[in-house]
């Protein structure tokens, strides 16, 4: 069976982990965590980057920093991972779902302004598949309405928009280092702080609501409880693993792009013949090949494809059940406007395996084989 995902191992992870074990410094924010912070600050250009134990944790920190209170609204796509919404719901916030663009499957920036009310606090663009949302428009809307922008860049390490790293354009951004992402530490994430006025509080929230980080820097002579917060920092073993991976971002992205391009070229004719649709990358975006997907005609054809690929030994998956059509979405969120692209595209999408070392030619042949069995009036 060809798995859908296989985490890339650089090879130096264990060496770093051994150093941590021998140092007897196992908690958070020691040497490797600091290396990762510096590296990510340099890479994103953000004034502060803080590792967390997941992107979910970074989103939760962002919701606290955005001062979300019960009834505050947060505009986001419905076509996203549950944590994008849950982080705000935990603070009593209300996710307001707007439709996505049919070309990138990202939030439709043209629909955001009409969803703004007197309760709106923030806009949360999600960069699907490492392809950026139309950030210039979103940032301009946010500026005019004095809203915070929190980028869910979970899938975005190694990708950029007009030369700017994903997650570094809003007030706050979040990255994921989950094993399914391009760069991983098993579980892991980071909060990118781009708005200098939020740095101090971000450090406090991450350190259980204490001013411990000021104490460590010698800015106060004892540390104490000053705000709400929790424990959001990873231990050094996780950071040591991540440090090995960060060294290889360019290399991993390059290898993934090669696979992505092979898929894209191989399916050119099928797209021309309107048998399937392929991903679209706007000129403003440099993507990171986080994902390769195909869009079929309808859900029946999609499920037939997934089943047929499984019989051929290749694991393919559909993606999000839109949040507005899940029990949690009914209870905690609401829709603004029509949501037909979200419903339609989520039904028709299939993700193909994409990992460094994948026998992509084999997968391509199986895909072409299965699609050749589609009949005009089959579905
Ligand atoms: C993976 C993912 C998350 C969650 O990341 P974790 O690190 O697993 O918490 C959130 N949002 C999006 C869009 C994701 O793809």
TrEMBL record:
The modification N6-(pyridoxal phosphate)lysine is found at residue 181. InterPro entries: DegT/StrS_aminotransferase, PyrdxlP-dep_Trfase, PyrdxlP-dep_Trfase_major, WecE-like. It holds the Pfam family DegT_DnrJ_EryC1. The active site is at 181 (proton acceptor). One of its GO terms (biological process) is polysaccharide biosynthetic process. Keywords: Aminotransferase, Pyridoxal phosphate, Transferase. It comes from the Bacteria. One of its GO terms (molecular function) is dTDP-4-amino-4,6-dideoxygalactose transaminase activity. Signal peptide: none annotated. Gene3D superfamilies: Type I PLP-dependent aspartate aminotransferase-like (Major domain). PANTHER family: DTDP-4-AMINO-4,6-DIDEOXYGALACTOSE TRANSAMINASE, TRANSAMINASE. Belongs to the DegT/DnrJ/EryC1 family. This is TDP-4-oxo-6-deoxy-D-glucose aminotransferase. It comes from Candidatus Thioglobus autotrophicus.
């Amino acid at each position: 069976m060809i798995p859908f995902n296989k985490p890339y191992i650089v090879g130096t992870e264990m060496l770093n982990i051994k150093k941590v074990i021998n140092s007897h410094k196992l908690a958070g924010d020691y040497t490797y965590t600091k290396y990762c912070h510096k590296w990510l600050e340099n890479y994103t250009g953000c004034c502060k980057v803080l590792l967390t134990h997941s992107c979910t944790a970074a989103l939760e920190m962002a919701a606290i920093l955005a001062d979300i209170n019960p009834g505050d609204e947060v505009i986001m796509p419905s076509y996203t991972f549950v944590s994008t919404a849950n982080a705000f719901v935990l603070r009593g916030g209300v996710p307001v779902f707007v439709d996505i663009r049919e070309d990138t499957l990202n939030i439709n920036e043209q629909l955001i302004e009409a969803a703004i009310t007197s309760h709106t606090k923030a806009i949360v663009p999600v960069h699907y598949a490492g392809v950026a949302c139309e950030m210039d428009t979103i940032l301009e809307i946010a500026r005019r309405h004095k809203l915070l922008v929190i980028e869910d860049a979970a899938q975005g390490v190694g990708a950029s928009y007009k030369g700017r790293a994903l997650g570094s354009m809003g007030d706050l951004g979040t990255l994921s280092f989950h094993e399914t992402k391009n760069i991983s530490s098993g579980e892991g994430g980071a909060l990118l702080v781009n708005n200098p006025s939020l740095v101090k509080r971000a450090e406090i929230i991450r350190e259980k609501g204490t001013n411990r980080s000021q104490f460590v820097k010698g800015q106060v002579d004892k540390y104490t409880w000053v705000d709400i917060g929790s424990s959001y920092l990873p231990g050094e073993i996780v950071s040591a693993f991540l440090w090995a991976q960060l060294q290889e971002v360019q290399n991993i992205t390059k290898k993934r792009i090669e696979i992505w391009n092979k898929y894209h070229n191989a399916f050119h004719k099928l797209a021309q013949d309107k048998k399937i649709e392929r991903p679209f990358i706007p000129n403003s975006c440099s993507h990171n090949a986080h994902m390769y997907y195909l869009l079929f005609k309808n859900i029946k054809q999609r499920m037939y494809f997934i089943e047929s690929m499984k019989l051929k030994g290749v694991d393919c998956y559909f993606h999000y059940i839109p949040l507005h059509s899940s029990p949690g979405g009914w209870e905690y969120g609401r829709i603004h406007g029509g949501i037909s692209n979200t419903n339609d595209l989520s039904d028709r999408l299939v993700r193909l395996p994409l990992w460094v070392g994948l026998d992509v030619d084999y997968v391509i042949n199986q895909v072409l084989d299965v699609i050749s069995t589609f009949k005009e009036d089959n579905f």
